[in-house]
Amino acid sequence: LLCLLLGLPSFAAEGWTTYSEPFPVHSAIPYRDGLILATDGGIRVMLKFVDKAYASADGLGGARFYTVIKDGEDVYAVSEYGVIAKLVANGDAIVGWEVLNRSFFSNGVRTIPDACVIVGNIMVVPFENRIGFFDIEKKLSVLTIDHIANISLMAQSPKAVAVHEDTLFVSTGKSVYARKMNWSNLSGDIRLIDPASWTQIPVQKEVNSFALKGNTLEMQ
Asked: What phi and psi values does residue 203 have, to the nearest 5 degrees?
């Protein structure tokens, strides 16, 4: 987040004291000439001539948001309990947010902050005890899994996920698991629910995040 703030134009340097409200900030992305933040007080859009916080009263379906993620020109936000919303813009004007999905909310399980990834039309949403797959285009949940390889995600919570080429990587901290995915037809992947279709990758240290450098996926 600090790197993002330092990379902003000079107009943002005058607003240091306002970046923490609402707070805390769980996720941030650069957008146009500013930032979009996912916070405990909702989604804050901070541009050169716009500074607005969107919350439950604006139709977001939740106050606490844990992830904001950009896919091309599209921006999505994921709440504490998995409500998924999309930023609606009309040219340069920010119209608001459209809620795409509320089905995860009824589970009452928190998402992992700043951990979602998007591949094609599929958003991978890690929760504290499961992983959800959501079709952005169809606005539908494809599947939710709670076991991978020889573990239960209810016992070992996902810490981070990453995608490299056609493979999805999931870290539980001390272990990393991988699976080749049929991203273009995930709903037709009948083995996705099968824990045996996942492979455990031996690691020498605790893995809490991933970084893609060139064509290499590094575990951190």
From this structure: -130, 155
